Every structure is written in C-alpha cells, then in structure tokens.
C-alpha cells in the first residue's frame, strides 16, 4: 500500500530547497561549471546582490553550495560552487521534473 504522505507520484522526489525558482536557477547555473563568480551568477539569474546572497545562504545551509572568498589582484571576489551533494540533489530534482512532465526519468 502506498503511503499517502510519501506516495509514488514523482512530485515527492522534488527537493523543496531547490524547487524555488530563483534557487533552481542558481543551482542550474552552477551545475554547468566547476565554480562561478558571484557577479556572473547574479547577472545570469537576473537578481540583486541581496537576493542572491539570501538564496546562497539557504543553499549553503542545505549543504548544496560552497562559498569561497578571495582576491583577484586587490579586488575581493566571491566564488560559488555546487558540492557533490548539491549536484546529486539537482540531478534527482531534474529527474523528478522530467518524470512529472512525462519524459521518463
């Protein structure tokens, strides 16, 4: 018998942390690279610094993203990267979306 709270429908495999549109866009951007500069992600996702910063905090607390600070010359820079757990969660989330859309998974 299927547990009504954790049934067989693929929506149960969606990751609540990744599912929010801005966080999904951030994770998708980071999935395409080993790491990315904060400004690149901000501009790609089309959000403000504060919005990206808040969403990165959520992703970092979930263990999906690592934030590294450093310098290029004398200018401070922040780099963002998916952790292995973040890559796994993103792949599983995308698989669930494909299954919901009827494209297999």
UniProtKB/TrEMBL annotation:
Residue ranges of domain Winged helix DNA-binding in the record: 22-100
Name of the protein in its database record: Transcriptional regulator
Provenance organism: Streptomyces mooreae
């Amino acid at each position: 018998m299927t547990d009504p709270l954790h049934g067989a429908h693929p929506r149960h495999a969606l990751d609540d942390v990744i599912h929010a549109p801005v966080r999904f866009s951030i994770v998708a951007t980071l999935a395409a690279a080993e790491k990315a500069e904060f400004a690149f992600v901000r501009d790609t996702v089309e959000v403000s610094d504060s919005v990206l910063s808040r969403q990165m905090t959520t992703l970092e607390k979930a263990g999906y993203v690592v934030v590294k600070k450093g310098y290029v010359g004398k200018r401070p820079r922040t780099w963002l990267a998916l952790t292995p757990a973040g890559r796994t969660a993103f792949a599983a989330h995308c698989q669930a979306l494909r299954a919901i859309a009827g494209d297999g998974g």
